[in-house]
Each structure stands twice: as structure tokens, then as C-alpha cells.
Amino acid sequence: MADVLDIDDSVELDVDEEGDQSVIRLKDKVTKRKGRGFGSGGSQRSDKVRNYETVDGGEGSDAMGPQKSVEGWILFITSVHEEASDEDLNEKFSEYGVIKNINLNLDRRTGFLKGYALVEYATFEEADSARRALDGSDILGQAISVDWCFVKGPKKNKRSRKSKH
């Protein structure tokens, strides 16, 4: 971690001034910064940090409802049979569009599926049609539940909370 002192470029120090006065003027113009990214080339790095890409919901991004992840639209499938495989899910979900990714988590102790899966589509339309059609359908004789993985809820207002005393 680096400690850096940023000095305002407009500071002019008179060599003829008394030492204490010039030090006081210098201290007034100094900004002390701690942490990463303030070493050499710190200003370039801080410009990069300010310009990170954001996931934009487009028009109506403040609206409640499903939200896009960084790469696509992800469905959360629950009540998946413990012996289901990615081929079973791929066969079922590929009817509604091109699947970008399927994620199945296994229980370390048993080696079986934990009971949920994530399926990612590139477009909202594909994911939404799969969600509507497959919610409540069967995989290996067990009814599954399909819903959005990321959902934006109503904004929370901290002032509206009532204090509990």
C-alpha cells in the first residue's frame, strides 16, 4: 500500500520565505491519499476506475422485474432431480433458444446434484419463453420450478423504516 501526497500545481514556494511559513503554505495545499492505485500513474488508473462499464437495463431500467447479468439472461431452476445431468437440461431448454451456459452444482459429499441449476440465454425473448413454458414441467419425473435468477425489487427507503425501541 502506498501513501502519496498530491500537491496542487498552482503552489509557488518562495525560497526567500522563512522555512516555517513555506512549510505551512505547502501543508495547506497537500492532499494525503492512502491505498492502492495512488502510486506512479495513479491519475491514469483513477480515470479508468471512474469509466467502468455498467450493466444498463436500457429504457425503464428503474422498473421492477428481471435483470440482465453481465453476459446474458439467467434462469434459476429449482427442484431439479438429483440424478439430472447437463444433457437432460440442455435437451429440455435448448428448444427455446441457444443456451450460452448451464451450471449445475454438485454436493461434495454425495456427488449428486444439489437440486438447482442455472441456465443462461443470450436474449430476453429466449429466456422468457423458456421460463413460461417450462415452469412446472418434469425432468426425470420431478416437477421443476423456473424463474429469473436476477430480479430488481422495489427501492428501499431507509427513512420509511420505523425504529424498534
H/E series, N to C?
EHEHEEHEEHEEEE
**How would you characterize the largest beta sheet?**
4 strands, antiparallel
Number of H/I helices: 4
> Strand order of the main beta sheet, please?
5-6-4-9
Mean pLDDT over all positions: 78
N- to C-terminal distance: 43 Å
Task: Briefly note the structural class of the backbone.
Answer: alpha+beta
* Rg (CA only): 28 Å
- Helical amount among residues, as a percent range? 10-25%
What's the short story on this structure?
This protein is α+β, with helices and mostly antiparallel strands and 165 residues long. It has helices at residues 19-28, 42-50, 86-93, 124-134; strands at residues 2-7, 30-35, 65-66, 73-78, 99-106, 113-121, 138-139, 142-143, 145-148, 151-152. The chain has a four-stranded antiparallel β-sheet, covered by helices on one side. A two-stranded antiparallel sheet has the order 1-2.
Jot down its keywords.
two-stranded antiparallel ribbon
Could you describe the 3D structure shown?
With about 160 residues, the chain is α+β, with helices and mostly antiparallel strands. About 25% of the residues lie in helices and about 30% in strands. The protein contains 4 helices and 10 strands; from the N terminus they run E-H-E-H-E-E-H-E-E-H-E-E-E-E. The chain has helices at about 20-30, 40-50, 85-95, 125-135; strands spanning about 1-5, 30-35, 65, 75-80, 100-105, 115-120, 140, 140-145, 145-150, 150. The strands form 4 sheets. A 4-stranded antiparallel β-sheet has the order 5-6-4-9, with helices on one face. A two-stranded antiparallel sheet has the order 1-2. A two-stranded antiparallel ribbon has the order 3-10. The mean pLDDT is about 80.
